[in-house]
Amino acid sequence: MKITSLLMQKKNDSRYNVYIDDNYCFSADYDDIVEFGLKVGSVFNQAELDELIFKLQYKKAMDRAFYMIDIKARTEYEIRKKLRESEYNDDVIEKVISRLKELNYLDDMQYSKLWVDNRMNLRPVGKRKLISELKTKGVEPYIIEQTIDNCKYDDLDTAIKLLKKKLCKTSLESDYDKQKAYNRLYRFLLYRGIDYDTARKALKLCLNELNDELED
């Protein structure tokens, strides 16, 4: 098998289409063509061609992964998903994931810890919502469980903090207002991932405290 043409792409003058025996075979950046010494007349057997294409795909996939991680931290699942959407084969993806782990660019345990810390400090939610968010990002259940346990996350404390930010004294002047506010705040806590019993307990504590303040 022999390279018979190297044609510059019309929409990207730094990328070339490579033709083997007059048939399109793959595309490569100009830098790759120089690095791998590709030129018209270069001859390959099937094993050599397969290895070359794999190296080109791996290099491009690594660039794609670094670009994604530069934008924001990612989980292993998120990187895999994006690379599959870009139609990289499984062997290339596995090598990329392995290399990113070696370089400490991928660490789901560390990612989960940072996610929980940021949630606790910036926009608190209940344990249920935290677990759901991490599951959506493809974090393994044992990592989620260990992360939550290590951070000593307290749903009641979180619920009370959320309520103190949300409560409005002027909305509790009548029995009707109290019930209406209670229902609204209860739904608010459930939406933020607080479980039913903890939501009721937090509401009772906060509303009792607020009533005491109003009576004073």
- The helical percent reads 55-70%
Based on Cα principal axes, name the global outline: elongated
Largest sheet: 3 strands, antiparallel
Span between termini: 91 Å
Description:
The chain has four domains: 1-44; 59-106, Arc Repressor Mutant, subunit A (Orthogonal Bundle); 108-151; 155-215. The chain is built from ten helices and three strands. With 216 residues, it is mainly alpha-helical. β2 (15-20) and β3 form a beta hairpin. α2 packs across α4 (90-102), α6 (127-136) runs antiparallel to α7 (141-151) and α8 packs across α10.
Question: Can you give me a brief rundown of this structure?
Answer:
With 216 residues, this protein is mostly helical. The protein is built from ten helices and three strands; from the N terminus they run E-E-E-H-H-H-H-H-H-H-H-H-H.
Can you give keywords for this protein?
216 residues, mainly alpha, Arc Repressor Mutant, subunit A, three-stranded antiparallel beta sheet, 10 helices, disordered C terminus
What is the element layout, followed by pairings?
Layout: E1 3-8, E2 15-20, E3 23-29, H1 30-35, H2 46-71, H3 76-85, H4 90-102, H5 108-122, H6 127-136, H7 141-151, H8 155-166, H9 175-191, H10 196-215
Antiparallel strand pairs: 1-2, 2-3
Helix pairs in contact: 2-4, 3-4, 5-7, 6-7, 8-10, 9-10
